[in-house]
Design a protein that fits this description.
2 copies of one chain form a homodimer. The first copy, chain A, folds into 2 domains: about 5-125 and about 305-335, Medium-chain alcohol dehydrogenases, catalytic domain (Quinone Oxidoreductase, Chain A, domain 1); about 130-280, 3-Layer(aba) Sandwich (Rossmann fold), CATH 3.40.50. In chain A, strands 3, 4, 5, 6, 7, 15 and 16 form a 7-stranded mixed β-sheet that branches. Chain A is built from 9 helices and 16 strands. Helices cover about 25% and strands about 25% of the residues of chain A. The longest helix of chain A has 14 residues, at about 130-145. Chain A has about 350 residues and is α/β, with parallel strands linked by helices. The interface of A and B includes residues 230, 275 and 276 of A. β13 (about 260) of chain A pairs antiparallel with β13 of chain B, so a sheet runs across the interface.
Chain lengths: ~350, ~350
């Protein structure tokens, strides 16, 4: 391996709310050399997640916040380019929490898995076969528990998780309503992801359009946004409805929590169940979900869209861009793996 | 049976929010005579429930609203004084939805049950062995699912449901924290109902007192109030907490819903589950719950307090009084059964 630089995206200050480009800095170090039991992964794809907002927050959250001065935590997919670990030879395609950097020095335990779906693009390991697909599978099927014929509504329906939720719900015999922002995403929901209805939350008559789309009531609401979109959905719950709390993308800051209409009466009168989950609690579920997801992708029943940014320079602003809604599909950063 | 008058409390207008005395009128009719398959029950005890607010509301609810001009719906307990039904002889003590009236003409199907606990006061059929005890039993054990050693918090802790929740939780090995209004009720919670801690929500430093009482976090929150009390509890949830939504007593009107701090982030980060229930969905659960409750009452492990109003004249203002917090324990109206 020739010596070259390893560029890394480091968290330099802690945002109150959504991380912006100014909260990161790109630094250059040397490419690491593996010690005993270690490997070096050359990242080809870095993942960008709405959840990263929480990962850098010091406010109570579900994981330790990324330390200031350290490489931004992220999923990545790449290949092993140097190895001192007998089980992980050079050339193996792997995925794991390798961080926003070109080369990652990791020990065997930090590798989430060897990527076995060699017939599918490597990038799918981060989206439809990665955290997003698994999140949709677990949240919808294990928490939402939809039954055939029920109406499933999902917010951020054109996104990496939402698009999977809608398609998995349809595969389970449900009627699906997607909520998304703007006409382009609405068409994507209808034409590519096969939602029965898609509603633009930016439309001035959104509440009426949602009411039309949900005239039979909402049996399962997979909530990626919270906020006014959720307020509108809550008024359409059926008796026994399930609300899956997966994300709160529409709320710029929870410190302090913003005000909204109280929901206890809906929960009571509709005997509804509202439940949050964090997919990292369910690592033992991933393999079984991935088996389903890969089969559906191969069968053309589960479609996905990727939003690819080019080069590590794109990383610092990439989370903020997600919250600006500028991506179409799963946001990824492609690193030029050819140039070594 | 001598002819005498039957006084009834009739709903005359529909409140927006909490029903007041002015929404009812007392009318006099003649005591009914049973037809074939019918009985006449002389009510000795009428029940007063916070849930009656919902029963008279035209806003979406879990039951058909009481029709204007008809007798106020309520549980009652009394004895059969005239019968044309072979299974229900004169003298039988019964309970059911007999309404706010001195005499009720009912057919066999309207009788909820014969009161078998002849060793206990008849009034217990409406409270600790009635809808309140069963509600506490089902909501806490079936929805809250407390485990020994967990902390269970309940709002309206001195009330008919809340006091049962606390005691049942303690019988299941939980640490219990009651939230109630004022020092008298706080002492009642501690001394009679055996809560480990009781906190006065009217105290200026309520949030700090609650934080002290819940320093290990809240595993189960049995919510009878919604509103600011609930907002304070939500900040102390443990991971995997359960919130049982049983009532919304602190909210005077849901039309429109009042604003409060959004809760989605708590639900997500704490992987919490918030679930509403309506006890009338679970009629098949009553008998098993009542067996437990009666055993605990007889054993002195489940204490109750009754707040008795005298005469049907007290009924029209009785719901409003509940919401003013003037009762201590289960509110009942005692009708003078001796005078016939």
């Amino acid at each position: 391996m020739t010596l070259r630089s390893n560029r890394q995206v480091v968290l330099t200050s802690r945002p109150d709310g959504i991380p912006q480009a100014e909260h990161f800095r790109i630094v250059e170090t040397t490419v690491p050399v593996p010690g005993a039991g270690q490997v070096v992964v050359r990242n080809e794809w870095l993942s960008v997640e709405p959840a990263m907002r929480g990962w850098v927050s010091a406010v109570a959250n579900y994981s330790e916040p990324v330390a200031l001065g350290s490489v931004m935590r992220s999923f990545a997919a790449g290949r092993i380019v140097a190895s001192q670990h007998p089980d992980w030879p050079v050339g193996t395609a792997v995925t794991g929490m390798f961080g926003w950097q070109e080369f990652a020095l990791v020990d065997g335990t930090q590798i989430e898995r060897r990527i076995d779906e060699v017939d599918l693009p490597l990038s799918t390991a981060l989206g439809v076969l990665g955290i997003n697909g698994v999140t949709a599978h677990y949240g919808l099927l294990q928490i939402g528990q939809p039954k055939p014929g029920e109406t499933v509504v999902v917010s951020t329906a054109a996104g990496a998780v939402g698009s999977c939720v809608g398609q998995i719900a349809r595969l389970h015999g449900c009627r699906t309503v997607g909520i998304t922002g703007g006409e382009v995403k609405r068409e994507l929901c209808m034409e590519r992801f096969g939602f029965d209805q898609a509603v633009d939350y930016k439309a001035p008559d959104f509440p009426e359009r949602l009411a039309d789309a949900c005239s039979g009531g909402v049996d399962v609401y997979f909530d990626n946004t919270a906020g006014p979109v959720t307020d509108a959905v809550m008024t359409h719950l059926t008796i026994g409805a399930r609300i899956v709390v997966c994300g709160t993308a529409s709320i710029p800051s929870w410190n302090p929590p913003p005000l909204g209409p109280r929901i206890e009466r809906h929960i009571l009168v509709k005997r509804a169940r509202m439940q949050g989950f964090v997919i990292f609690d369910h690592l033992d579920y991933y393999a079984q979900a991935r088996t389903d997801l890969a089969e559906w992708v191969r069968g053309g029943q589960l479609k996905y869209v990727e939003d690819m940014l080019d080069g590590i320079e794109a990383a610092p602003d990439a989370i903020a861009g997600l919250y600006r809604g500028e991506n179409l599909g799963k946001r990824l950063i492609h690193l030029n793996a050819g140039q070594m």
